[in-house]
């Protein structure tokens, strides 16, 4: 029989909390397991490390490689502020401490050098061409392959597109030389029929388009992998629902396929903008002598020529440092634009 406790002047009975009857140690354990501990979501650092130690050990070699070959060498940029001479000492590292300090003199020389600004201009032109002509190609190829119904045809098409990625730049340039060079197949065929041949491989005027075409042939198929992976995550129910609503092939691609690719496109575009000042060192160096430095000199070859060939290490380090700082600024700016467009970009806000 229920009693009216309020009528007797006593306080109403409140239900016991879920932790009633549980010891303080057990409550603390439950709290950490549910993400309420000081370690944030997933428990304390010790708990999370014990849970993910296998993954941490798997990634540790890669982290060490990045640290040794990418981050520790950044300390060597100090030679950009020195008249660095590696022959002062038997040890190149010790020579840093004995080289004279010149401050910003290397940067002053750099900004007064017309060859440096020519290299900057060639680099930006090549980046613009590759962004406009090369970047959309993997997207288009992924859409075409994704529209193929027969699995065997899709597999063969992907294998043919991927194959050039595994060729070295020496082989790629040799193939183009045998086709578009002065002694190539096209030039010989034209001469055989009474026409004047041509040599596109030594024409400075079209060199930048030639470099872009070589990059498309070599790496476009490899870039398709990322977009095909993004398309594989799209639910078939979306296509079926849009088809039932009367959407044709182009409508489905515009309203279903492309929105699914948008986050990946934004991410790769940010990374590509950050890599704008790196437009292919080995590829361009192999063809530099054929067209001349006026058409083929970019920042990477400029740094190599002055640092390795001329052994002006401080001057080359100054050019490389400027390139790194500008590239970092481009990544941050492009990532900010991605955030404004509603995408995550390289990292979250």
Question: What would you note in describing this structure?
Answer:
With 349 residues, the chain is an all-alpha fold. Helix content is 66%, strand content 0%. It has 16 helices and no strands. It has helices at 24-33, 45-71, 92-98, 105-111, 114-134, 136-147, 151-162, 169-180, 185-192, 207-232, 236-244, 249-274, 281-291, 293-296, 299-309, 313-340. Helix 6 (136-147) crosses helix 10, helix 11 packs across helix 12 (249-274) and helix 15 (299-309) packs antiparallel against helix 16. The chain is globular. The two termini are 59 Å apart. The model is unreliable at 1-11 and 36-40 (pLDDT under 50).
Keywords:
single chain, 349 residues, disordered N terminus, mainly alpha, 66% helix
The radius of gyration over CA amounts to 30 Å
Q: Count the DSSP helices.
A: 16
* Main beta sheet: none
N- and C-termini, Cα separation: 59 Å
**Low-confidence segments, ≥5 residues, pLDDT <50?**
1-11, 36-40
Secondary-structure-based class equals mainly alpha
State the order of secondary-structure elements, H for helix, E for strand: HHHHHHHHHHHHHHHH
- The 3D shape can be described as globular
Average pLDDT rating: 82
Helix content: 55-70%
Strand content: under 5%
Number of strands: 0
SSE diagram, text form:
Layout: H1 24-33, H2 45-71, H3 92-98, H4 105-111, H5 114-134, H6 136-147, H7 151-162, H8 169-180, H9 185-192, H10 207-232, H11 236-244, H12 249-274, H13 281-291, H14 293-296, H15 299-309, H16 313-340
Helix pairs in contact: 4-16, 5-10, 6-10, 7-10, 10-12, 11-12, 12-16, 15-16
